[in-house]
Amino acid sequence: VDCGHPGSPPHAVVMGDKFTFGSTVHYRCLEDRALIGESTRTCQLNGQWSGSQPHCS
What cystine pairs are annotated (predicted)? Predict the structure, then answer.
């Protein structure tokens, strides 16, 4: 199962290069901005990423 790239919100970087079932990506904000939402998302069996994409303040 491949979830595809989870997307990168403005002013953030996505760490992780595997987008298949069970893989986890981590989000980090740039320029001392605060992360709003979950910092990690996991590729699920249904081909969707867990939770919703966070954003940076």
Answer: 29-56
Q: State percent of the chain over pLDDT 70.
A: 100
Query: How large is the average pLDDT for residues 9-24?
Result: 98
Give the CATH number of the domain where residue 45 resides. 2.10.70.10
Which residue type, as a one-letter code, is found at position 35? L
C-alpha to C-alpha distance for 27 and 44, rounded to whole angstroms: 17
Residue 57 located in a structural domain: no
* pTM: predicted TM-score of the whole model, two decimal places: 0.91
In the chain, the number of structural domains is 1
